[in-house]
Amino acid sequence: MKAPKKRNEFLYFALKNRKLQAGLAVILFFLVVALAGPLFVHNNPFAYVNPLGPQPPSSRYWFGTTFFGQDILAQFVFGLRATFLVGLIGGGLGTLIGMLVGFTAGYRGGIVDELLNMLTNIVLVIPTMAVLLIVAAYLQVRSLLTECLFVGLTAWP
To answer: Model's pTM, two decimal places?
Structure first.
């Protein structure tokens, strides 16, 4: 009798897990909205489309408008794209840094392992949100790349 393959076992349990299916469905829905949304949203998320100020949801503005008359649906769709990009790049950078630190600590051992373990513990206890606020206050450059770098540099342990 053959032992079941690990991949088949993973797929079997993944298909049986309702929470996993629900979570993947929500993420895939938002990913489709982020990718296909700009085809359906014609307003610039920063443009002042309604001079009357805040409007409730309607057939013209599905999510309504802000106090300044900006289309909330356009802001939502374009914000989703930025969120997925920050998560992908920041998560990839964090994974890369974590792997490098872990592999180096495991390969070298000894004092290098101890120092990298201590560095990891220090980074783990730093309050990320407080550091983000302080860094954002002093940085002159605020961009998507800056956010990706910050997420990657603080999410690796």
So the answer is: 0.77
